[in-house]
Design goal:
Helix content is 43%, strand content 13%. By secondary structure, it is α/β, with parallel strands linked by helices.
Length: 305
């Protein structure tokens, strides 16, 4: 597991999602270190310079929790505060149920905790894909999305960063049928870089990394969803009493994918929730779009735990 680290003290481990890298926390790492903590941003399994198994079975929850336990052991830390974004948030929610003694706090970004699905995720994805294009469903078949995204890394990354940065942009994907469409067929066109929140050099770093590694590792997190669902049966909807901060942009399209009242459900499931920071105008990549606001919320939370 490859990590970027800065500072000393209690570790704050920053877990990214798709399509991300440890680099996705570049604005948070120095701020956390300056606050007297040890900021640690791994390239998660399947990404960057970390191991990238091609078999989706290597991304189940038993394995990804073991990755984090191994990282804690390598750091010589009994406990850490965990921050998660996207799939990183899904993993860190589970850490509080799987290994609660090693979780001192949670900083969850963009993805609230919701009740356990009554049927397997792939069953739900298949049903939804009958109505409109759904990337969760499209990503399930090994090799298909991999080839499309690997062959068009720059265009895909530009479009996905742009679309997910505002709910109205991303909703246009749902105007297309699943049949006969790939992701690039439904994602809206994106303007050229730079953008106010993403420079050309920053974007080029993502492009270079994903051209080097391909997207299979990241896609395998989606393909492991059924295995994770089965493995989480034993913890069900156990309440999370760990001190928790939740940060979300009010233009994040993911909230609309999480059920009728995802923030209300989270408040019921997480008695340890200390604060919800909603950031106006920001979408899914809120830690990059509004880093100063996100950093302020994180530092206020760290001061209290």
């Amino acid at each position: 597991m490859s990590i970027t680290e800065q500072g000393s003290g209690v570790p704050v481990i920053l877990c990214h999602g798709f399509p991300g890298l440890g680099y996705s926390w570049r604005h948070q790492i120095p701020a956390i270190a300056a606050a007297g903590r040890h900021a640690v941003a791994p390239d998660m399994r399947g990404y960057g310079h970390s191991s990238r198994p091609t078999d989706a079975a290597a991304y189940d929850r038993t394995t990804t929790v073991a990755d984090i336990e191994g990282l804690l052991d390598a750091l010589g830390a009994d406990r850490a505060i965990f921050a998660g974004h996207d799939f990183g948030a899904q993993l860190t929610w589970d850490l509080a149920r799987w290994i609660p003694d090693r979780v001192a706090g949670l900083i969850q970004v963009s993805v609230p905790l919701t009740p356990r699905m009554p049927v397997s995720p792939s069953t739900i994805y298949t049903a939804m894909a009958r109505d409109h294009f759904l990337h969760f469903h499209y990503f399930q078949q090994p090799g298909v999305a991999d080839q499309e995204l690997d062959n068009n890394a720059e265009e895909f990354l530009r479009r996905i960063f742009w679309a997910l940065s505002d709910v109205d942009r991303y909703r246009t994907c749902w105007e297309h049928p699943s049949e006969g469409n790939g992701y690039l067929d439904v994602l809206p066109p994106a303007p050229a870089l730079p953008w106010p929140w993403l420079s050309s050099d920053e974007f080029d770093h993502y492009v270079a990394e994903f051209r080097r590694t391909g997207f299979t590792g990241g896609l395998n997190w989606y393909r492991a969803a059924d295995a994770v669902w089965v493995q989480n049966e034993s913890v069900g909807d156990a309440e999370i009493h760990t001190p928790t901060l939740f940060v979300v942009g009010d233009r994040d399209p993911v909230l609309g994918m999480m059920g009728r009242d995802p923030l209300g459900s989270m408040k019921q499931l997480v008695p340890g929730l200390r604060h919800v920071e909603t950031i106006p105008g920001a979408g899914h990549f809120v830690q990059m779009q509004e880093p100063d606001r996100v950093n302020a919320a994180i530092l206020n939370f760290l001061d209290a735990v």
